[in-house]
Design a protein that fits this description.
The chain has 297 residues and is α+β, with helices and mostly antiparallel strands. It has eleven helices and four strands; from the N terminus they run ααααααααβαβαβαβ. 46% of the residues lie in helices and 7% in strands. Strands 1-4-2-3 form a four-stranded mixed beta sheet.
C-alpha cells in the first residue's frame, strides 16, 4: 500500500494525469471490509480486549430472522380452509338425508288451505239421512247396487214424507227441478240445459243426487218404474257431459214413484226447466230433483 502511495505521489510530482490517482484510490475504497471474527465469551468479559468496530457490532446484534413464520402461516391458512370444506360437506350431507326421507318435500308446491266450514243446510238430521242414503243406495261400502226405491227409503230414512222434503228445502237455489211430460221419461231441451248448468257447477261437492218422482196418475208399479227411468235419463245425460269412471260413487239415485214424499205446489217456485208454463202439484211431481250436496260426513 505504501508503494502505491509513493507511486501516486511520484506521479503527481511528475505531472501525470489525475485519472491514475483516482483509479488507484477507487480500487482501494471498493475493497470489501475485512471480516471481524466474533468475540469469545472470555473476550467479552475482558475489559482489556479490543472492542469490535461499529459495523461488526451492528451485524452481531441484528436479531436473526424467524424462518418458521412462513410455514406457520401456510399451516394456519390450510386449517381454516379445511374447516370450511368440512362444514360444507356436513351441510350437504344433512340436506341429502332430508331429501331421502322426504324426496318431494322441496318440490311440492305450496297449496292454500281451503275453508272447511259447511253450508247452513248441513244439519245433523240432514247428514244422518244423507249417510243412510249413501250406504243403502250403494254410494259407499262397495255395494253393487246404485239407487233406492220407495220401500228402501221408507225403511232407512225413518222419517215422514213432509220431513223428508223439508230436508231438501235449503237446496232450493243449489238444485233444480227437471219436469217431464205425462208418462214420459226423456229429457227435453230445457231439462238438458238446466241439468248441464247444475251438474257442471260442482264447486268441490262430493255427491250429486237425483230424486225422481211420478204423479199419482196411473198405478203404483208403473209409476215406480217410470220414476226409475226418469232417474236413469238424468244419470245418462250427466255421464255424457263429463266422462268419469267413478260416477257411480258420486251419483245417488232415488226413485220414489207416487208412494213417498210427494211434492206440494209450493215447489213450483223452485228453479225448474219449464218456468214459462203453468205449474201445479201434479206437474211438479212428474219430475227429477237434482243437486250437488256440499256436506262433509
Amino acid at each position: 500500500m505504501s508503494d502505491e502511495i509513493d507511486v501516486l505521489a511520484q506521479t503527481r510530482a511528475d505531472g501525470t494525469p489525475d485519472e491514475l490517482a483516482e483509479s488507484l484510490a477507487g480500487s482501494t475504497a471498493s475493497a470489501p471490509p475485512a471480516k471481524v471474527a466474533p468475540r469469545t465469551r472470555a473476550e467479552a468479559d475482558d475489559p482489556r480486549a479490543p472492542q469490535p468496530t461499529a459495523p461488526a457490532m451492528r451485524r452481531h446484534l441484528t436479531p436473526p430472522q424467524d424462518s418458521a413464520a412462513g410455514p406457520l402461516l401456510f399451516v394456519l391458512a390450510g386449517s381454516l380452509l379445511l374447516a370450511a370444506v368440512c362444514g360444507l360437506v356436513v351441510h350437504s350431507t344433512s340436506s341429502a338425508g332430508k331429501r331421502l326421507v322426504s324426496p318431494h318435500a322441496e318440490d311440492a308446491p305450496q297449496v292454500a288451505i281451503a275453508d272447511q266450514a259447511e253450508v247452513a243446510y248441513c244439519t245433523p238430521q240432514f247428514k244422518e239421512v244423507l249417510q243412510r242414503v249413501l250406504h243403502a243406495c250403494g254410494l259407499e261400502g262397495g255395494n253393487s247396487r246404485h239407487g233406492c226405491q220407495p220401500s228402501d227409503v221408507k225403511s232407512f230414512a225413518s222419517i215422514s214424507d213432509a220431513d223428508f222434503n223439508a230436508l231438501f228445502a235449503p237446496l232450493k237455489d243449489r238444485g233444480a227441478v227437471l219436469l217431464f211430460d205425462n208418462a214420459a221419461d226423456e229429457l227435453d231441451e230445457g231439462a238438458k240445459k238446466l241439468l248441464e248448468e247444475r251438474f257442471l257447477d260442482r264447486k268441490g261437492a262430493r255427491y250429486f243426487f237425483a230424486v225422481a218422482r211420478a204423479s199419482k196418475v196411473g198405478n203404483q208399479a208403473k209409476n215406480r218404474a217410470l220414476s226409475h227411468r226418469r232417474a236413469n235419463s238424468v244419470k245418462f245425460h250427466a255421464a255424457s257431459l263429463v266422462p268419469d269412471p267413478d260416477l257411480d260413487k258420486k251419483f245417488g239415485q232415488l226413485w220414489l214413484g207416487d208412494e213417498f214424499a210427494q211434492l206440494s205446489e209450493e215447489f213450483c217456485s223452485w228453479p225448474n226447466s219449464r218456468s214459462d208454463e203453468k205449474c201445479n202439484a201434479e206437474a211438479v211431481n212428474r219430475s227429477v230433483f237434482v243437486s250437488w250436496v256440499d256436506c262433509r260426513l
